[in-house]
Structure of LacI family transcriptional regulator:
Amino acid sequence: MKTAPVTIKDIARSLNISISTVSRALRGMPEIHPDTRSAVIRLAQELDYQPNQVAKNLVKSRTRTIGVIVPNLSYHYFSAMLNSIEEAALQAGYSVLVAQTNESYLRETTNIQNLLRSQVEGLIISLSRDTDNYAHVDRLVRKNVPLVLFDRYADNIDASKVIVDNYAASFKATEHLIEQGCRRIGFLAGPAHLLLSNQRVDGYRAAAAQHGVVAGGPYVLHCDYTQENTIVQTLAMMSLPNPPDGVVTISDRVAYPAIYAMKQKGLAIPDDVAIVSFNNEPVSAFFSPTLSSISQPIQEMAAETVRLLLRQIETTDATVPRETKIMETQLVVRASSLRTGYTLN
């Protein structure tokens, strides 16, 4: 449900002072008593007051615009999701404003404020790599700002979400490596606080435990998604006394530099090390070797994300229930994990 923004009048009423006093306090005018100015600023922050020249008209007007915040548009997954989100929004008569965080928590908070100032009617967000404090998102929830999270999220945020079953997908990827004869399996994970990554690590551990293969412990290393860090972590993993003969990576963007590092060590893929990844980027079908990867239903996820957001925007009911939509994935098997003498089950 779209709600009216906090105004100077609201602050004045709450503190039982005049509107002009609030205005002067927010502008730092010297004639305002310091205690009054502090009280005004403190309440403005608590209520998330945003100065806006057209705020008075917001309740009556419709911008029919939604904001989308993603970690990085150079990642194929997010650019593909954005394309599909925009298409679904356009079909519903909405336009899209886009911001990217470049994996920065600070940019994420700034992007949210900028989009709200631009009078978007709702937000679609995938959290940045560095985000481990969710107060800024919780504030949106408390203010009833229409919100849907996708891909990267946090369990304790009370918002609608569109995600995949990361645990099941990783279990499937790991089990495939086991079926190909791998007995020591590593995992190149994302940042240690990232829920999506931890869910995939959990699925990997469960599959390894069920089949009695070596995994976990020193075979799980965390990357920050950069090529340089991935290469360092891969070389560390492959320098273990008993290095893995199979590796699951958190994403294709991690898999590519990981494979480069393995080749630099003279390892043959998949005979020495079999690889399975996530996201099934288009280049995976042309990479050498072609990369086995988990494919996510991007168009369906985008359509569901927009549907859940518009349901909140276009209702007058303040108690729209939160929904979590969990989408199924598909393992696309290619040369990086297919070993001689083994076949697909």
